Amino acid sequence: MKNSICPHCQFQRQPEDNGPTWQCSNCGKAYRKQHGEPPPPSRQVQRAVIDNESFISWQKRLNTWLIIALCSSAAAFYYKNQLPDTTEINSALSQEPIQRQTKKPPSSFQYFDRLYNIRPVADYELWGLVVSHNNTSGMGDIYHDETSLDTKDLCVLWGENLANNQFRSATFSSTAWTCHLEYPAGISLNLQQVSNNHLITDSDDIRQKIEGIRIGDQIRLKGWLVDYQENQNSHFWRKTSINREDLGNGACEVVFVQEIEVIERNNPSWYALWFYGLIACVTIILAKIIIVLVEISPHRH
Q1: 84 falls in which pLDDT band (50, 70, 90)?
Q2: Are 66 and 15 in the same domain?
Q3: Is the domain of 184 the same as that of 243?
Q4: Of 46, 83, 235, 288, which has the maximum CB count within 10 A?
């Protein structure tokens, strides 16, 4: 404002005067204050406004991305454990398990500095659809941890149970040692073609493969039906079932796994979306926290 006249002291501003152009260099008052208009914002104020707009804009974007990631993860969590349609079942799962007399002698091996004794009962090979498994790392399982010889229990169906989609109307769940199933009236399942398998092994590689098996996977496993005991508990043997007709306590097969493979993976796309959706949620939340911390940092003010 060259040659401005101050409405307060009537001083006329000269071109050589120093100080802000909106402020009288004589009395220091703002030229526009008399009209109720604030002085123009300083560069620092302008920058703060721009930074605040940028902060709000980024938070809105991140909120949108977080909602998308949460919805995607929730949908994937629901669909990832949906059992496959009967048309997707591999024909190998129509056959009965193969059980033969074994020639394998009793043996012992160590796991986490504990000695275990194995008593083979039969050679065994099974093809099945995994409908449930226990969670050995969950808080509800007080019997298993990383030092337990038992790996994941796999509850499987095979044969005529997979010939139509009735099995998809049943509800399957697992506790530490047991597989539970419920199905509505009008649904028929052959309970002699259902088994809950306690899996043990002396191989780290096979243990890792077992850990990677998920609900809905179609699998083949081979090994021996065995009884086993921890050497220091010589009075107790955990015994295997040797037929598919028994029910209740003692009806589970204890399998020393020699080979295991996934014939068909179930819902790999939904599992991938669920996994990466969770990573995205965590990443976005961390980004929101970092932006807030940067915004309130004293170095910015």
Answers
A1: very high
A2: no
A3: yes
A4: 83
| Residues 142 and 31 grouped into a single domain | no
Q: How many domains does the chain have?
A: 3
Render pLDDT for 219-275 as a digit per residue (tens, 0 to 9): 999 999 999 999 988 889 999 999 888 887 788 999 999 999 999 999 888 888 988
Q: Is the same domain home to 151 and 100? A: yes
Question: Mean pLDDT across the chain, nearest whole number?
Answer: 86
DSSP 3-state of 179? strand
Cβ contact 188:198 at 8 Å: no
Token duo for residue 189? 């399942």
* 3-class DSSP state of 164: coil
CA separation for the pair 76, 19 (Å, rounded): 63
Residue-number span of the structural domain to which 18 is assigned: 1-40
The number of CA neighbours under 13 Å toward the Cβ of 68 is 9
Over the range 127-152, which residues count as b (16 or more CB within 10 Å of their CB) and which as e?
Answer: bbbbbbbbebeeeebeebeeeebbbb
Q: What pTM does this model have?
A: 0.72
Kindly state whether residues 181 and 287 are assigned to the same domain: no
Does 217 have pLDDT greater than 50? yes
